[in-house]
Backbone:
């Protein structure tokens, strides 16, 4: 049976971001990313710092582990990374979860297509704005959205852009214009992914959230949008595994 | 043309709660409620304290006012109260908004049916738990959910229960069991609807939010659920008109 590089399995907790914000879920975090965003809050998945924690697991191993720690206290699993879309063989795990009546959410930056995208119940595509120092391959992203649309999957898909500065904001507007048929979520960037002073972090994040709201409400070219903070960061700061 | 008792029109801002949390929207708040919840955060809509601010407006008046203050900076309007479901003639406003390609959200406690429920894009039914001191009429609520289901509207509907204490939590579980086909949102109650110390309020709300998450993640009878704070209260405290 083929294996998946897994860095963390934890939960149940709540999803703090995006299209199913607040949803009770388990998390499976895969290792490896084709990007290296300047502000990545999961850099340990690709920068080598946690390479000893990576475990090669079969779909069955992951499902067993999910049940071990989650018991019967979940019906939803979120697969995140890193970029889980690097893993062609993730279909085994997705099938196994669906067979067990588990809903599956997944987040990827939209740099690669996988055929199993059409099985995901809540697919978040999160292209990275200029502040990440990454460059979006729009041919690829166009193709991903086109394929999802052709297969009538857009109701299970959202776009999410993290905003740190004005250039990011303009980038997000471009995404909204380019893919008007896909729900767009704007998320406040966390400037301090290592900060440990949670009260400070919370009040900074809420200030930045308010500023982003102010910007959006004044902008007539950005009406069909949802603006969210990261709830898990407000509650738990930068702690891992919650 | 028939008139609607309106207490506030404001926005654009973001929806801080529930099924379209984060959505850029305008608000229209109608006056009058058939309930008097102990912790009502909009008691001015029914307790007489703002009776001089109530304006009787036609649908045209409301639409004009929305455009005056919102310009072209919105495509979504949220109607809240009080209980807007007291107003049979709200269909005029709803039709006018839809003709202008505006999406319409509405919140009601589920004590009355109106035929125009089937035109609402995001209908939040928020039955009140024991701490409100109100008593849910479950025959009525069953009938509302049944009618929405018959007309194939459940994908536009959610249930939301505000949680202050253990009895409320049990009530919310009962709602989830009774209407498994309707998405359920749990929301942290705001114990201090008059508090003006926003930092204190934020940190209390986040503490209570964390406690509610802890309770939910341990509960195997409450899996299919989303747990949310009130984002507008985190950002703006108890201020009106934001
Ligand atoms: S795509 Fe995601 S996981 Fe990869 S570097 Fe960027 S933020 Fe980190
Ligand atoms: S139903 Fe809503 S508006 Fe009416 S009293 Fe209760 S909380 Fe207030």
Residues:
């Amino acid at each position: 049976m083929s294996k998946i590089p897994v860095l963390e399995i934890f939960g149940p907790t709540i999803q703090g971001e995006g299209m199913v914000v607040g949803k009770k879920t388990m998390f499976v975090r895969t290792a490896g990313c084709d990007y290296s965003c300047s502000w990545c809050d999961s850099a340990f998945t690709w920068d080598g710092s946690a390479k000893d924690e990576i475990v090669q697991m079969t779909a069955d191993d992951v499902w067993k582990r999910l049940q071990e720690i989650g018991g019967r206290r979940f019906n939803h699993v979120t697969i995140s990374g890193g970029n889980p879309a690097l893993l062609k063989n993730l279909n085994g795990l997705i099938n196994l979860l669906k067979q067990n009546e588990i809903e599956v959410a997944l987040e990827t930056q939209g740099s690669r297509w996988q055929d199993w995208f059409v099985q995901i119940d809540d697919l978040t595509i999160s292209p990275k704005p200029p502040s990440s120092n990454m460059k979006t391959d729009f041919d690829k992203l166009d193709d991903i959205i086109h394929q999802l649309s052709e297969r009538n999957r857009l109701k299970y898909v959202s776009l999410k852009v993290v905003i740190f500065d004005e250039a990011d904001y303009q980038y997000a507007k471009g995404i909204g214009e380019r893919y008007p048929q896909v729900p767009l979520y704007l998320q406040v960037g966390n400037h301090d992914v290592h900060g440990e002073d949670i009260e400070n972090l919370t009040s900074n994040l809420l200030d930045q959230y308010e500023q982003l709201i102010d910007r959006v409400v004044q902008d007539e070219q950005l009406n069909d949008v949802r603006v969210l903070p990261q709830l898990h960061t407000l509650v738990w700061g930068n702690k891992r595994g919650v």
Q: What stands out?
A: Chain A is about 30% helix and 20% strand. The two ends of chain A are 30 Å apart (CA to CA). Chain A has a mean pLDDT of 95.
